Amino acid sequence: FRYLAFHGPCRLILQGCRGIKIEKAEGKLLDQNLTIGFSANIKYSVQRCETFLSYLFGKETLFNDVFDGNGYYIYEEFGEKRSQNFLGRGWAGLWDAFLKGLGL
Q1: Cα–Cα distances in angstroms (integers) from residue 31 to residues 28, 46, 89, 90, in the given order
Q2: Closest of 9, 90, 85, 1 to residue 37, by C-alpha
Q3: C-alpha distance from residue 35 to each of 8, 14, 61 (Å)
């Protein structure tokens, strides 16, 4: 599954590189790679935002998510990426695999 749809009360544990945020959906654009989930009753669409060449060279994503309506969306905070060295990526990958094994 790519996204989670939320409907009704729930208790949920989420993790992001720098944390997560929840905001009201009021015509907001968001990078597709950062979207975690959204309310089931909001309008969701995709909008092309970058040129194909910047996408082809890996600088930007080609599409953004657009949320509008009466509800909320959850996304990963953006900013600095994870450690780029080999050892840092390895530990981060092992930790993610461990959490997935626990179902988190």
Answers
A1: 10, 10, 22, 25
A2: 1
A3: 19, 12, 13
In the numeric block, the tokens 């790519």 are attached to 2
pLDDT, tens digit (0-9, with 9 covering 90-100), for 38-60: 888 888 888 887 777 877 887 77
- Residue found under tokens 């080609």: 62
Query: Residue 70 burial (CB < 10 Å; 0-12/13-18/19+)?
Result: exposed
Neighbours of 65 (CB within 10 A): 22
Closest residue by Cα to residue 44 from 23, 30, 62, 61: 30
Q: What pTM did the predictor assign?
A: 0.61
For residue 85, name the pLDDT band (cuts at 50, 70, 90).
low
User: H helices within the chain, ranges in order?
Assistant: 52-56, 86-101
